[in-house]
Amino acid sequence: MRAELLLFFREPGSVFWVMAFPTLLLLVLGFIPSMTEPMDEMGGLSTVEAYVPVAVLLSMIMAGLMAMPPVITGYRERGVLRRMSTTPVRPAAVLGAQVGLHAVASLISAGLTLAVGRVLSDVALPRQVVGYLLTLLLAVVCVLALGALISALSPTTKIAQAVSISVFFPAMLAAGVYMPIQQMPDLMAGIMEALPFGAAAQALNQAAAGDWPDWAHLAVLALWTLLLSGTAARWFRWE
């Protein structure tokens, strides 16, 4: 785990995009006066308030889709996992370290985002803490399961990067990066809520407002997590 942590921090690009960029995005929005004003079309939320769960999810998407798959695929492509299978360090331990490392990085980024939103933009902290934490955990496990599936199906690092980018932009759309789900047409919003990041964004908004997340949104996250993790485990190869 310590070795993987050192390697992670030797890649400043990954550290920036996973742990700093979502917070900076919220910080920039907070300095635009019109972004802090409540809007009727978003249920009385300001744009900054609506973007807090988006920024939280963005860190997870960066970690699960852009940072982790090339690392794991690169290990397999270079024969690192195969060589480790002959040593006391098992390949599963390396994979577990990678998943745990990116999960922790995502959760730290989420904490920074909430803190910046509260201090600089006066965004209230989540009022339904248990529901918010449950949604966060489901979301981070789901996105890392998606990243593991990309790693499982990609024979080379370049292919993993190409697939990750192809999934990355639709994932950001579903999370509400381009447009908060509250502003989407009903049909489009319904489609986004059937996807894991759209469901997570809505559940985080509900928990932030003090309500327990809709069980339908939590069920969407749980089902996608089971599907993605099961498929990744089925198709993953050590070499």
Automatic annotation (TrEMBL):
It comes from the Bacteria. Residues 13-239 form the ABC transmembrane type-2 domain. It is found in: Cell membrane; Membrane. It holds the Pfam family ABC2_membrane. Its main location: membrane. It is a multi-pass membrane protein. Keywords: Antibiotic resistance, Cell membrane, Membrane, Transmembrane, Transmembrane helix, Transport. Belongs to the ABC-2 integral membrane protein family. This is Transport permease protein. It comes from Streptomyces bohaiensis.
